[in-house]
Predict the structure.
Amino acid sequence: MSTEAERGIADNKPDFDFHGRALDNIFDEYEEILAKRPVGHSEKYGGFWYIAKSEDIFNAEQDPDTFAVGPSMILPSFGTDVPLIPIDIDPPAHSDFRKILLPMFTPMNIKKLEPGMKETARQLAEEVLSSGEVVDVSAKLARPMPTIIFSRLAGYPEEDWPIFDRWIDEIIYERTAKPETAYAAGRELNDYFDRLLDEREKAGPDAAKDDLIAQLMKAEVKGRKLTREELLSYCYLLFLAGLDTTAWAIRSALWYLAGNQKAQQQLRENPDMIPGAAEEFLRTLSPVQAMARTVKTDTVVQGQELKAGERVVLVFGAGNRDPEVYEEPNEIKIDRENNRHLAFGGGIHRCLGSNLGRAEMVIAMEEFLKAVPHFERANDAEPWHGVGPLTLKIGA
Amino acid sequence: MGEIYVDGARCQGHARCWALAPETFEIDEEGYGKVIPGRENSGDELNVRKAIRNCPERAILERSDDEAPAKNEEVATS
């Protein structure tokens, strides 16, 4: 049996982290680990092996028997120890749960939502424009747009929306520094959905309601309805996945464009370039920089032994800047043509909402660029990542 | 390039093929891609090559000769 020293744990990257302030300079870190140590060990979050190269991440995602998602692909957890459906469920149970919502997220179904999305984005962009010369577009556009669009799709009553940002902030962004805050918010969120499901059950089936909650409540898995615990887990996951990631994606795109006037003007004049630019922002500034797995059977990646039971983190953000896959990987090229990125993951756990996320991102950019004739960063201390303030100077 | 097809075992419904080359690919009711019947020989078109290069699951494949539909053989043997 090999010792930890023989396996090279000692001289690894014990501080490698992919949350919070660690993201400030993480692209330099990626460049270094891709060149020197594409599989390495970190002591953060109970210890994990990171996998940085695109091909290795792809292979791990294609092999769920070796790289399982249980107990959770979220590290550290989203304020709950309950496995989230469907992302924390391994085969064979996984596909039955996932199938329930697949038809809701096809590009054709998302297309039906586009007129509403455009109207929402246009209104928010106009509010930005009328809010003065210096505006926080994270609070005014990047965050409210997915809240409105996803809440309508999912079936969250409008009067509840104002509390959502706090739950997201506490569960997702405070979980590393203040896990107890994340867990307390997690309990609130769980109770919220418990009440919402009670109300929906009491109201009975409503043919007019075609939202995600209705789909989940009427769905059957192996000839039975979902239990309340399963419904709560699914609702909990959808809430966090549907609101936060898209807000980050929109904010990071605007962050880039605010700092790059040439690209901003190019997209304003050529809106047909926006979908391609969105892919490039997803590649380089993605809200999902990494997701965890657990090794089920001993395996070897890049010569590094990984033992059953060990945690692994697939660093999509690093794979997306792998020089073996992308020319000038650290350059953001809004007209990049070869862009097989990992922002939505791959294999059986491919982001269920990828088509919705893309549509929201594209529409947010289209409407913002159309409404706002010029914008630049007003506070260079604001980072590229997260959903915190993005203060822009709005001008003519 | 020979006939192309979407490998159903690999496709996970990213729908990039449909976004980049809608004249060649369609999406089923669960979101999985397939080649529109009659468009199997469009593999050399610019949009289709883009779709192949951008498929995150590398699921758009070229039929090898022994995998090709048995049409020609049937004609030859009948």
Strands of chain B lie at 4-6, 25-27, 33-35, 60-62.
